[in-house]
Predict the structure.
Amino acid sequence: MAADDPRHGAALRPAGHPTDEVGPTPSVHATGEAGPTPTAHSTGEAGPALSAHRTSETGPTPTTHPTGDASPTSAAHPTTHSGPDSSAIWLRPLESPLGRPARHTRVDITLAAVAVGDRGGLDAVTMRSVAAELGTAAGSLYRHVRSRAELVDLMVDHVAAEYAFTPPTGEWTEDLAAVVRQGLAIHRRHPWLVKVTGTPLLGPNGLRFVEHFLAVLDDHPATDGQKLTAMAVLNALVTSFARHQHPDAERAAAQGAYLAQAVTAESHPHLAALAAPSEQATEADLPKVITAALRGLLETE
């Protein structure tokens, strides 16, 4: 659950996140930094739990219909939305009974957007590129989504469905370690999750992430606020780790070259004295690191 808002769990991103880092979450980004946070997709990053990438490629201003569906109209005649039609996309009907049946469904559009993102990254996901993936015109997508931001919301929530939750065992650290491992796997399959920023809207799969997280901690004496903060931190750390597992090679080389020149015993004695790590942190280390952090966050008097 994608990564950012403590309410999220996708990639949200697989869940919500307290910082500008996300995931799936369910944007609970896992979740967000986070995982497919609800987004959380959970930090400004969105996991499959749920932005800089939520900029608007809005296209024509949608016209409100009694059914809640939208169709393009001239931007010179903006429509004011009210009631359910101006709410989250999941509150609007999948299909409009008005006009000819659409060639593609909301699910088709979501799957196409995820395919484009998996192949070319989040920057490649535009209304035009998704329409091209479906072999249709970009304007036809506005029957289902009003903007690129909604498209990203759908993507983050969709990948948050990849979490396979099992009933809580009573051992919360083990149960949440399993969530961390799944969040990392979702980020591996959908690397674009680490680029989701802002707070993706929490959808059905993001809610499932949050519900599972709270169920795992149901008997824990921590407050509700502590639990939501812990969820956001989990997603942020998953997304942060996923990002650093796949750094930009050119930027990493530039950073290394700068540090080699700038860090000396005279200018930065403490940095210079650090021993070089014998090995990079591995994916197997992360569940233990995160559960240790959560223990501190969930401490009670």
